[in-house]
Amino acid sequence: GENVEQHPSTLSVQEGDSAVIKCTYSDSASNYFPWYKQELGKRPQLIIDIRSNVGEKKDQRIAVTLNKTAKHFSLHITETQPEDSAVYFCAAIAQAGTALIFGKGTTLSVSS
Amino acid sequence: NAGVTQTPKFQVLKTGQSMTLQCAQDMNHNSMYWYRQDPGMGLRLIYYSASEGTTDKGEVPNGYNVSRLNKREFSLRLESAAPSQTSVYFCASSVDGATQYFGPGTRLLVL
Question: Across chain B, which distance is largest between two alpha carbons, in Å?
């Protein structure tokens, strides 16, 4: 089955810096890759996703890139702000009718 | 439109007790999921239901049972709770089997 590895487990940046979180997946049939943000005590919320027919997707300060050959995808956050501090999860799914497999999460801390 | 709702929000059980966690969605989604979240372990899939009438095991199904009562509701039952089942439980739903929307979670403490 699918396995998703996420790095780093913790990331500390200064306000205004960029942050990058990387994930690798094992199943070459995976075709959907979402990123979720979870604030302390809250539910995970979808922030951006990408499908396998696209190499990059942007939404304001966040972007996701996908390298299908290497089987990895990354979340990029530019001009970080304190409110970006949260746990970020990547996930992958190989086929409809199954379920997302999540990475173990990255705790991002943005200090002002 | 409440999205995904879960009850209860918080529960304390004694070892050996049973309970059912309830989940409902009002988005007419086909698929529903149960995850548990433990520190450093991410979100681990317990069971899922790709469509009404079907259920499948996930990564950590032992000690749990599920019921897809109808298209809206998907319950998770602990028959004999153990301290190892202390966790935060999230229900989620999806219209296309990919993009998932999560409920607010249930915090369960088993003593």
Answer: 38
B29-61 pLDDT, tens digit each: 999 999 999 988 889 999 999 998 899 999 999
Q: How many C-beta neighbours within 10 Å does residue B33 have?
A: 26
| Integer Cα distance of B53 and B35 in angstroms | 19
Smallest Cβ–Cβ distance between B97 and the set A44, A49, A97 belongs to A97
CB contact under 8 A, B100 and A34: yes
How high is the mean pLDDT of chain B? 95
The verdict on A103 touching B (C-beta cutoff 8 Å) is yes
Contact, A82 vs A112, CB < 8 A?
yes
Q: Report B:3-62 residues touching A (Cβ under 8 A).
A: 31, 33, 35, 40-45, 48, 50, 58-59
Q: What are phi and psi of A109, to 5 degrees?
A: -120, 125
- Using a CB-CB cut-off of 8 Å, the residues of chain B touching A29 are none
Min distance B98 CA to chain A CA atoms (Å): 7
Half-sphere exposure of B28 (CA within 13 A, CB side): 0
The count of other CB atoms within 10 Å of the CB of residue A16 is 11
- Helix locations, A31-73, DSSP H: none
How many Å is the maximal CA-CA distance in chain A? Answer: 43
CA distance A111 to chain B (A): 22
Mean pLDDT per block of 10 residues along chain A (112 residues) reads 93 98 94 96 95 91 96 97 97 81 96 94
